[in-house]
Known about the structure:
The complex is a heterodimer of chains A (112) and B (115).
Chain A: E1 3-6, E2 11-14, E3 19-21, E4 23-26, E5 32-38, E6 44-50, E7 56-59, E8 62-65, E9 75-77, E10 86-93, E11 100-102, E12 106-111
Parallel strand pairs in A: 2-12
Antiparallel strand pairs in A: 1-4, 3-9, 5-6, 5-10, 7-8, 8-9, 10-11, 10-12
Chain B: E1 5-7, E2 10-13, E3 19-24, E4 31-37, E5 43-50, E6 53-57, E7 65-68, E8 75-79, E9 88-95, E10 105-106, E11 110-114
Parallel strand pairs in B: 2-11
Antiparallel strand pairs in B: 1-3, 3-8, 4-5, 4-9, 5-6, 7-8, 9-10, 9-11
Amino acid sequence: GNSVTQMEGPVTLSEEAFLTINCTYTATGYPSLFWYVQYPGEGLQLLLKATKADDKGSNKGFEATYRKETTSFHLEKGSVQVSDSAVYFCALSDNGNNRLAFGKGNQVVVIP
Amino acid sequence: EPEVTQTPSHQVTQMGQEVILRCVPISNHLYFYWYRQILGQKVEFLVSFYNNEISEKSEIFDDQFSVERPDGSNFTLKIRSTKLEDSAMYFCASSGIAGTQETQYFGPGTRLLVL
Lengths: 112, 115
């Protein structure tokens, strides 16, 4: 079946540091890939998405490239801010159904 | 910007009681979803709903669960007889059309605690 794996544990880093959150997936078809972000007290918000291999999704300085050869969709940002502190979820949807399969999420804490 | 809203934000109930979680999807959306996240675990799909009927459900969505669109704006999830293991954050989502490329817009969630 479809599944998403995110790196274990929270991520703590200083302001202006480089952020990477790893995401790998298993899918039977040709999935679309998403990153959602959840700020404290709010719902899941779409951060970016990519719908086919080699597509790059980008938004608010974040980027992720759909890599079919490594089944990955790693999230990166070159210089994080305190306001980027949130939980980040990688997700996929696959052919034939509308359900999203999520990773466990990563708590990111940016320290001033 | 249009958003999905959910009520209540928190719900505490006794085991065996019925609960109804409410959602107001984005007004011109046609597809509605429920997901849940047990503490420390992944967000899991429960059910999708279109044209007044369930279009897909997961193995979690057993006979204790039901969904309804009682009017033109609300979308509800009912748990008939709650169990301790139903304690979770429940998220409602909606999308304008179906398809794997379509964005689902999520509400802020209802935290359910079953005692």
